[in-house]
Every structure is written in C-alpha cells, then in structure tokens.
Amino acid sequence: MSEYLVLCLILFSLGAFGVLYRRNILVMFMSIELMLNAVNLLMVYFSALHNDQSGQVFVFFIMAVAAAEITIGLAILVMIFRHLGSINIDSLKNLKW
Amino acid sequence: MMEFVWLIPALPLLGFLILSLFNKYIPKSASGYIASAMLLGSFLIVLNLLFSAISGQLIEQPPVVLFHWVHAGNLNLSLSFQIDNLSVWFMSIITGVGFLIHVYSISYMHDDEGVTRYFSYLNLFIFSMLLLVMGSNYVVMFMGWEGVGLCSYLLIGFWFKNQNYNDAAKKAFIMNRIGDLGFLLGMLLIYNQFGTLEYREVFDQASKIINPNEVSTIITVITLLLFVGAMGKSAQIPLYTWLPDAMAGPTPVSALIHAATMVTAGIYMIARSNVLYSMAPCTLDVIYIIGTGTAILAALIGLTQTDIKKVLAYSTVSQLGFMFMAIGLGGYSAGVFHVTTHAFFKALLFLGAGSVIHAMGGEQDIRKMGGLMKKLPITFITFIIATLAIAGIPPLAGFFSKDAILALAFEANPIKWGLGVFAALLTTFYMFRMLYLTFFGEFRGTQHQKEHLHESPLLMTIPLMILAALTVFSGFIEVPHVLGGHNWFSHYLAAANIALPEASHLSNSTEYLLMGTALALVVSVIFITYFLYVSKKTQPASSESEMSFLDKLSYNKFYVDELYDFVIVKPLGFLSDFNSNIIEKHFIDRIVNVSGKSIQWSGKTIRYIQSGDVNTYAIFMVIGIVVILFLNLVL
C-alpha cells in the first residue's frame, strides 16, 4: 500500500519545487494548492488505513481553510497586477535593506 | 487613663500634618499657637500620668497595645507603648520643656518666612521623640530614633540657603547614621538571641538564660553595639563632632533637640536596657572611659570658643559625657537625674543665649558683647542661675546631680572622682568666662547694636523664668542621705526596674569632705575667672596668630575635624575619584559601549540576507524545515 505514500511524496515535492522555481505568482499559488492536496490525500489514506473517520473530517476543514486562503491570496494578486502591471514575483523586490 | 495614652504622640503628629498640609492657608502668626496648643494637650495628659506614676499606680503596668503591626514567621511586632515611671519621666521632660520652647519660638521666629515649616518640623520632632521613649519594644524605639534624626537634620538645615548650614545638617545626619547602624545591629542580635524585641520578654529571658556571675560574650556585644548607637545620638567620642556644628539651626532648636531631649536619647536607651548592661561589666567600663574622655575633651575645647552657642554646644557634649560617666559607674538613676537637671538648665542657657542673640541682632561672638547685664535684666538673672547650676553651686539642681555622680565615682576609685572634679572645674571656668564676657564689663559691639539692645518680649522671658524656677527646685527630688534627704528619685525610678545603686559605703564625714572640696574648688575657679575676665578685663585673642600653642590647640578643637577629614573623608574622596575616573570610565563604560557596538556591527553585516527576493526566502524556509525534520529524525 506504500504506493499512496510515494504518490503523495511526488505530489508534495512537485508543489514545493514549483513554488521555488516558478516566477509566476499564479502558478506559485497552484503549486501551494498541490502541496495542500498532497497532504489531504495522505490524510484520507491514513484514515482508511486506521479505520478512523476523523482524518477525513479534517480534510474537509483543510479544504475550507484553503478556499478562504486562496480567496485572499487571489485578491492580493489582483492588487499586485493593478499596481505593477505584472504578476512576476521578481517585480516584488523593494522590501529589503 | 491608659485609653488616652495614644493621644500623647498623636496630638503633635496631628499638628505636624495640619501645619505641613495646609502650609499655604495658615497665617504665619497662627502656626506657632497651633503647634503649642497641640503640645499643651499632650503635656496635660502626661502630667496626669506623672501624678499617677508618682503615687505608684504605674508599677507593673502592662504595655498599651495600639495594634499588631508585623506577623512574619516567629516575629511578632506590635505598636505598643510602655507606660512606666521611666518613660513617663522622659515624656514629662519632652512635652514640658518642649512646650516652653514652642512658646519661646513663637516670638523668636515670628519674622522668619518659614515659620510654619519650622513649627511643623518641631511638632514632628516631638512626635518622634515621644515614640522613642514610649515604645515598648526596640523597633518602636528605633522608629522614633530615626525620626528624631530626620527632624534634627531638617532643623539644622532649616535656613537651607546657606551652604554651610546644609553641610552641618548633612554631617549630623551621616554621623548619626554610623551610630544607627550599630543600634540596628544590636537590635538584630537581640532578636537573634532572644527571638523577641519586646523589652519585658528580652529582659526576662536575659536574666533567666544567662548566669549573672559569668560574663556573657553575646550580651557584651549586644550592649556595645547599642552603645555605638548612643554614641552617635548622644555625641560621644568619636562621633561628637556633629553636635557643635548642629548649632547652625535656630537657637530654640539647639535648646530643644541638641541640649534637652534628643541627645539624651542614648541615656534613655541604656537606662531602659539596664538589665542587659548590668550583665556586661566590660561594656560599662567602655562607657565610663568614653564618657569621661568626652567630658574632659569637650570641656577643654569649650575653654577657648568665642561663639556663644559653640561654648554651650561643647558644654552639652561635656555634660552628656558626665551622664555616661554615671552610667558607666552603674548609676543609671544618677544618669537620668542629670539628664533631668541638665534639660532644665541647658535649655535655659540656650534660650538665654537666644535672647542675647536676638537683642544683638544676630551677633553670636562673645568678643563683641559685654555689659548686657543692665539692658537684659531678666535674661541676665535667669542666665546666671543656670550658670551657677551647671557649675554645681548648692542648692541649685546641678549641685545635686553632679554630686550624685561624683559620689559614685569616689566609691569606685578616688582617681575617677578626681577626673570628674577636673571636668566640673573646666565646666565652671568656661561657663563663667562666657557669662562675664557677655554680661559684665563694657559693651564691645557697634554703636548701632548698642542702640538696638532691648529685653526680649514676654513670650520669650516667661519660658526663661519657668525654666529658672525648675533649675532652682528640680534638684530637691534627689537629696542624698547625708543632706537629710532620702533619694526620692532613685526610688521613683526603681519602680521601673532601674537598678538602685548600692547603698553608699562612704561615711557621712567623707561625703561632707568630698562635697566641700569640690565646692571650694568650684568657687575658687569662679573667683579666678572673675579676676581674669572682669577685674583684669582679659579679652580672648581676636586672631589666631596672637594665641599661645595650647590656646590654638583648644580653639581649633584639637584638630579633630581635620583629623577625620584626613583619615576618613580624604581617602573616601580619593577612592570615589578613582572609581569614577578609572573604574567607571575605563571598565564599566567600556563594557557597555563594546556590547552596543558589537550588536550594531553584527546587524550591519547580517542585514544583507534580507534581499527582498521571495524565492530566496522560500528556499531558506524549505531548507529550514528540512533541517528541523532531519534533526528531529536523528535526535
């Protein structure tokens, strides 16, 4: 049954590397979602494995929170685009020493 | 009666609060009357107590507990008053003489701008002093002890615009502080040893625990430490130098605090703890030596002083030495008796000096006085009564109290008697020198002062007259057996657990001989001084260069102040300079600056990590998480 674990690991790593390598903020968001869903998948898997429903309940919570988070994130994204005319992360470099 | 006891200290405290809180709203002329009225109230209650004490109703009176103060572990303290013959006696002196001096001050201070402040301090002083003598444990006494020290400081520096006066006030405070430390240590040692600070329990336990025939080290240490406190407060060698400087305060203050009451607190404390002191013969020897030394040294300095108040100040130091001499010989009641008579005649002398200074428009130098006899008749008569009393001429008060001490001294050792008589002769000499220079001969001041000379108003002369009457009659409370009396005062105090002196072993003829010798010597000294200062009209040298070596030595107070300056003040100043310039600047400041600089430097270096690049942050974050998880796995 360890295929599920490997799948989750691959999904999570894809997300993490996506966040690190992509410059498009929208794509970075999608990568973050990917990481979240890898974790969700893992939860469901373990829930089935241990015959315990609370893992699946938690997944619903995580989805709700992720939805709320992405709404705010997208709102910020829109503001950035209006302000800078670009959604490239490299254009946000003013906040430094 | 006992339910009103709390009013005795409460009234002066109330007076202090009223005068200090409503300082601005009270007319200057009224403040003195308010303060005096408060004190009169206390005095009347005390007088009532005194009558019950005399009729023997206060024997074995339990302490009056006002409230329980501290409960901590084994320590139980209460604010309580010990009303017995001894404390009532001191309370009468404090409130009685205090009231007279308050009344005198109304007139003496009437044109001073700080008169309300003055009376509030005076009331606070009376409150503290009453607390000191009324307390039934060492802590309450210590509260009063510190309180009177504070008031002494405030009143010496009353005219605070003069820097010299401020310095004198500081000197008094610091010297007292040294003594207070000894007192505090003695108190802690008592607590450590007996587990209580209540007089009764301490004395009971002390007489039970300790074998009276064997010298107990701990008791000796306790009594010596307490005596250090007494040295500071009662101006004994080596802590006496503050008292002459304390004359910077207004003259009634010198009369009240630095002659009649506060400086006798040390005597009170020792008389109160006489049970402990009687167990420590070594301490008594130390007290005797210091007392005698002070009596003679201060009298020698007094011989050449030219400031009328300084002469009186050294006379006070010397008389305090006499009291300690009595206590060192085991004569607690003789010591307290001398406190009483001294309170009357010394207060009278100071108030008389105040009257003279008042008439002279602030002049205190006796070289510029002379011939005041006719212009100030009341002051002169009262002054001469006090001078005769301090010299020990019968039947004035000083004769009986000094004779009691000298008789004790002769019983111990004829040499001790000789030393006592020597100090008494010196006293006679400088007191009559001052009297003759001030009141006899020709006036030596300016023409302006001469026209201004006048007798003081009634508010000042009435207290003088009352004190003069007390000076004349107060000696009769302790007439010795040889003169047909029965030592009433010793028996009065014996009811307050003051050990009676052992019955005199001297035969009547010896005592008559001693009295006669001392008296003859005193009278001849009076005539010598008369011959020197009135017939030959000797004047004290007007400048130091004209003085002989011994004169100079005495005039400059044996250079004790200079010695203290050299031995203590200068090295301390040097140490402070060293600490401030070397240790502070090169060590402490450097450590502080280096730590500040290093933080600045590291901030400057590390801030470049803050690149503003989101990806870099993300990489750091991932690396951080991986490291944490890895460590979690490994450890």
In short:
Chain A is mainly α and 97 residues long.
Describe this structure in words.
The complex is a heterodimer of chains A (97) and B (635). Chain A has 97 residues and is mainly alpha-helical. Chain A is 78% helix and 0% strand. In chain A, α1 (3-21) runs antiparallel to α2 and α2 runs antiparallel to α3. Chain A starts with a helix and ends in a 13-residue tail after the last helix. The mean pLDDT of chain A is 90. Chain B folds into three domains: 1-185 and 236-260, no CATH class; 280-542, no CATH class; 561-634. A two-stranded antiparallel sheet of chain B has the order 1-2. The interface between A and B is small, with 12 and 11 residues.
Write the layout of secondary structure elements.
The complex is a heterodimer of chains A (97) and B (635).
Chain A lengths: L2 H19 L3 H26 L3 H31 L13
Chain B lengths: L6 H15 L6 H27 L9 E9 L2 E7 L3 H24 L6 H20 L3 H19 L6 H32 L4 H11 L7 H17 L8 H4 L5 H10 L4 H8 L1 H5 L2 H22 L5 H21 L3 H28 L17 H15 L5 H16 L1 H26 L7 H6 L5 H16 L14 H7 L13 H28 L13 H7 L4 H47 L7 H21 L1
Antiparallel strand pairs in B: 1-2
SSE string of chain B, helices as H and strands as E: HHEEHHHHHHHHHHHHHHHHHHHHHHH
Q: Residue share in helices of chain A? A: over 70%
CATH overall fold name of chain A:
Helix Hairpins
Q: How many helices of chain A does DSSP assign?
A: 3
